[in-house]
Amino acid sequence: MKMKEKRKHIGLRPKRNNLRKDKKPANNHKFIQRSRQMEQMHRTESQYQGTIDDGSKLTADLLPLLNDETQFYEQLVSGYSSTITVPTVKHEEKCILQETKIEEDDMDQIPSDSTNLKQVNVFTNRFDFELESEDISAILAKDTNELKGKWSAIGNFKIEKPNLKSTSASDDNYKQPADVLKATDLQLLKVQMSLTLNVSYPLSTKQTELFHMANSYLDLYYPQRTHDNAEEIRYVYCLHTVNHILKSRALILRNNEKINELVKNPKQPTSEMSLPDSVRDQGLTRMKALIILPFRDSALKTVQIISKLLFENRKDPKTGYPVTKYERFLKEYSGNTVYFPKTNPKPPDYEQTFNGNTDDNFKIGIRLTKKSMSLYTDFSGSDILLASPLALRMIINDKDQDFDFLNSIELLIIDQAELLIAQNWENLLQVLDHLHLQPQKLPETNCQRLRSYCLNATSRFYRQTLLFSSHDLPEFRGVINNKCHNFQGKVRIINKIESGFISNVLTPIKQVFQRIDCSSMESALEDRFQHFVRYILPQFTKSGHSHCLLYVPSYFDYVRLRNHFKKEMINFVQISEYSKKEKISRARDIFFHSGAPFMLYSERGHFFRRTRIKGIRHLIFYQPPNFPNFYPELINFMLDINQNPRDGLQDIMSVKVLYTKFDLLSLSNIIGNENAWRLTTGASDSYLFSNNE
User: Fold this and answer.
1) Which one, 395, 433, 568, 615, has least CB within 10 Å?
2) What residue numbers bound the domain in which 238 lies?
């Protein structure tokens, strides 16, 4: 591609809303309509500025432990509440010496590992580390040290570690890790022995490096997920999740043994006895891992991997893995819900994305024991929760349900984040805002077994987050930078994008990128609209500019432009994610045969259907696409084979992309990092790209 300048110009729990009250699961093909209902009633446009915290607000209101208005945490420490119901205990000493209630199957979960102090201690160092108020202030202020490195498979990465007053006991060695070829290699990484026996060896170099990052308990942002490496990544985070759960259970069992010894050989009267801080090994609820996925098919693949990791060496040839309610699970989570036509087939990436059950309203609790894995368990008794953002948000907004199970999450995994953008990004943000909130009631867990950060209301600083996406976007950066406060720091993959998806453009056409000046991100939406109405639209309403497709990534902008077109009585057709099949066919036919000079086309409409639009002579990107592969795909619709030979406009074609300086990441995915930087910081406001040699 050639580029040249064209012309120069220079807390406490928030109130629930009544967004969704019905509890009946919608049909699989209704997920678009459900998304529309959520948007219409609680629309917050997908702009990451809404997720930004003010790092200067380092006051007591950011620290619940210093501002316990309801005395909840004081009651939690004392184990008594006059207003909140707690389990009745006949004798005080029973409250003091109470062991964690573990079912019989759990008692011998990992006998060989439960006494392996060396392995367990490496795990507990993270959760035994106590943050001071100065440390929390440093984390919120983003006072960090940066470390850059490069490994052979994942490439370049940047680590940001907070400047803490006291250093945590963690391994800061980020040299190229050795390949994992056998079980002993994973055992050196402190993976539970029972788990290493079921791993499929050898792990690929990419899997090894990703697992090293995850096993270091840094937050991880990996924006290079593809359909080719998707299952490699899924295997890694399943391995890390199961290892985390098994270590937690092993630690509880070991501490139960300590308590038993303390009771059998007391050094002081039972009435005066208290548990040592070394047995603080639990959160407010049992659930420790939350895996957020877009579709039921993703949950199906995740459960299958977890089953293999737990029971591969004990698989029964006839009955398979010991997973309870697995037949029901297969019935509800398998099967295809999207039809793929044989004539005029969809692009390969579309079929890979929507293959399987694409219902986006699901939630399933998983409980691990030695003998089996239980599905559909009650959330309060689950170790892992697989769920979609929509399903979790419906729970949060239901006054008849509580979501206390979200307050002790230690491991959060968000996979296929780009698909969550297409569904409704606001759902995910709503879920993240409801993690680690003050519970509605005191837990049944013995207060002397609670970790110190649960008593201090600082659980969010001990949560690890892993986020995987196919490309980099401001929304993803916003989550990692402003919703994740892991005291051990975060790592982000920062590989350079050389050329971007513009190299896949086949149509020989000039592409003009025009910058819109705006003072702030808050004003960008209005500035973009005013620029389009005043300067761009008049150019294409003139005669000779028929067959113009206006591509709009944001549904909010789409509705605003549609209303403006109607107000100005501009002849146009429209296709969005909510358009019915019959109306789509009619709109395509009218547009192709010059019945309407404009087509208003939403990004999510293209994402969910990948309709092939014919007859495009002029293509306007109202904003750079969130999905960079759509850029060459739409331009390639302008090839001669897709044109109407009778429209008389063979020599009149154009492509225009409107952008602001805040679209840097979206531009980088399309034209590469260097070109994107030049477009957002250069003196000119218009740049021309051409694939004509």
Assistant:
1) 568
2) 50-141+150-337+346-493
